[in-house]
Amino acid sequence: MRELTDAMVADWTSPRPTPHRKPPQLIPHRHVAHTTDIAHHPDGRRAVITWSSPKIDPGLIHPALHVVAPDGSVTDLGPTPPDARSPVWWGDRIFYLALTPPHLQGGLAVFDQDHRNLTEGMPACPTDLVQTDGAPIMVVATGLDTEFHRLTEGPFAKIKGSHRPDRRAPLDIPAGIQERLHYQARDGLDLDALLVLPTNRTRADGPFPLVTIVHGGPYDRWADDFQLTWVPSAQWFAQQGIATFLPNPRGGLGRGHEFAHAVYKRVGQEEWHDIETGIDLLVHQGVADPGRLAIAGWSHGGFMAAWATTRTDRFKAALVGAGIADWPKLIARGENGAFEAALGDSAEHSPITCADRITTPLLIVHGADDTNVPLEQAELLHAAVPGSELVIYPGEGHSFTGRANKIDLLNRTRRFFADL
């Protein structure tokens, strides 16, 4: 068993990588989308997950598991649930991650080569499987934390010293105090979140202007680590005297299948109430100034920022980053159509349908080459909301890579929220 190191932890808890080269075509008429979808056995066999098509939709929807022998012969182990990934060997058996059946919205589970769900009912969410010399390690998102468990036939054994992300400021940059929050939704569902206060301030110095940042996915989460990224983030706002609320509403990972599945065909519904309940709590506690509230988000978070402004006029500004304005058009023209249809498949859930209600100033930003959420979504919202500002970044996709564009986005957002 290899020793756990910081570098290994960072690698295991990072998002699924985009392939840096085209993987080999090992199975005729099937496609290996990621080099990480091949696991090597010491005797030379390879466990391989393939797609039915090189396109995400339908390829990701119809994966299959195979074993390739050293001589190149192939044994098919049958179709897997959608979004199968991270195969590992344990002895002569294969285990992998895939979406929890029968829906596309419900989060990941661990399966064996007979396609049995080994984590059914687990109140947390597996996010990765890691090959070792012994039992594979399962990385698990649980609430705001990350744990490591050995994959065993009985109850999964938690590894002592599971990962608690580093919350320290890099290079000794002054950082805002970060708190873990726990509260209940309107229907009694337990929720968690983070609060980041302005630099060199405490709760006693409130109330503060407050920006709520909604995470993407929605099958994602805010973990208790240092909140400073190229997307305008909590510590970025802390430097400007602004507090930040980072909610984990239903639909995200960290609390099991049922929690994640709760937004199936109900995107923006109870999910929005979970967020607003947390804002109300911070206002009640004297942390947030009710007259200086704003909201921001990227991808699904961008959708939620736009959607929130159709539900209420309490926000003084909203940043809509790579967000969804029209679900039917996204399903028809985005690269993840089937997955988007599992969230919101009608105009009823679209900000564009209720755009006449929006009075909040909007800063809409989008990459020109985004194939996940096409640029059309930003253009539709901008055209429907008079006075909104649209900024298009040439050469950028769903996540920005250009340093100059990242800096421009941060500075543009700083100016946009300056009057809170």
From TrEMBL:
Tell me the protein's name: Peptidase S9 prolyl oligopeptidase catalytic domain-containing protein
Organism field: Lentzea guizhouensis
Q: Does the keyword Hydrolase apply?
A: yes
Keyword Magnesium carried by entry? no
The record's section on InterPro entries has: AB_hydrolase_fold, Peptidase_S9_cat
Report the superkingdom from the record. Answer: Bacteria
Alphabetized PANTHER family for the sequence: DIPEPTIDYL PEPTIDASE FAMILY MEMBER 6, SERINE PEPTIDASE S9 FAMILY MEMBER
| GO molecular-function term, one example from the UniProt record | serine-type endopeptidase activity
